[in-house]
Design goal:
about 250 residues, alpha+beta, ten-stranded antiparallel sheet, 4 helices, 13 strands
């Protein structure tokens, strides 16, 4: 798991900034398939739990869904660990604006990264990043093809950068995802989520739950609160109809 922060900054036409503490999971799903972790309540009720159905097409095994996406894209060498960066269910509720699947080869290098994006209108779209330039620290680009915010149009492109440093002991390290969005007029949004990694344990989960008991409900609440603030700043509103969505 990781304790960190979410940063979100709109550059125009009215500057707006979000900077909040958060925590999230980074799960080695292939390892967990072979040897489940008793700390993590999976596909069953709990104060904090992880449910496969919250990802992909809602099936009982989200890793199977991931492998199908990779095969469909012709990616045959992502046979190493598959790390999922995501929010868990907290008090039974989960909303993930975006989850990241880090798909490794057996030698530990990145074969693909899948960004699984959800909007508040019930839509989901996946951006699959791969190719010879994919690596931690290297910028990746994807054309925007999905309606997320009513304050942005479906145009332009995202620029992704993924960083992860490993500690020499105790499963620690640092993780960072940066996503910058450029529309037809240039840079518009700068966002990032970062965290200090630590081994998942009952004590750490209890501590996180005490500190952020409404973690995922808070995500949804902040989205609507900041939408109201953008309206008050007279940021142009482009509507709520979902754009075309990719099949899973």
């Amino acid at each position: 798991m990781a304790i960190g922060r979410v940063l979100h900054q709109r550059l125009r036409p009215a500057p707006h900034r979000l900077n909040v503490p958060t925590w999230f999971l980074l799960l080695p799903l292939r390892s967990l398939r072979a040897a489940p972790d008793a700390t993590l309540r999976r596909n069953r009720a709990g104060w904090v739990s992880f449910h496969d159905a919250d990802h992909g097409d809602g099936r009982a095994d989200c890793l199977q869904w991931l492998d199908e996406q990779l095969q469909r894209a012709g990616i045959a060498d992502a046979d190493g660990e598959a790390w999922l960066h995501t929010y868990p269910r907290v008090l039974g509720f989960c909303f993930n604006p975006v989850s990241f699947w880090y798909c490794h080869r057996r030698d530990g290098t990145l074969a693909a990264v899948l960004a699984e994006v959800n909007n508040t209108f019930g839509g989901r779209h996946c951006y699959l990043l791969s190719g010879p330039t994919l690596a931690f620290g290297a910028e990746q680009r994807a054309d925007k093809a999905f309606h997320v915010s009513p304050f942005c149009q479906v145009e332009g492109a995202y620029r992704f950068r993924f960083l992860r440093t490993a500690a020499a002991h105790d499963g620690g390290g640092h993780t960072l995802v940066r996503i910058d969005y450029d529309d037809a007029s240039g840079p518009l949004l700068a966002t990032s989520v970062s965290g200090e990694l630590a081994e998942l344990s009952p004590a750490r989960l209890r501590r996180a739950l005490r500190q952020w008991p409404l973690l995922t409900l808070g995500v949804m609440a902040r989205i609507h609160w900041h939408a109201l603030r953008l309206l008050l700043k007279r940021v142009p509103f482009f509507g709520t109809a979902p754009a075309r969505q990719a099949s899973h």
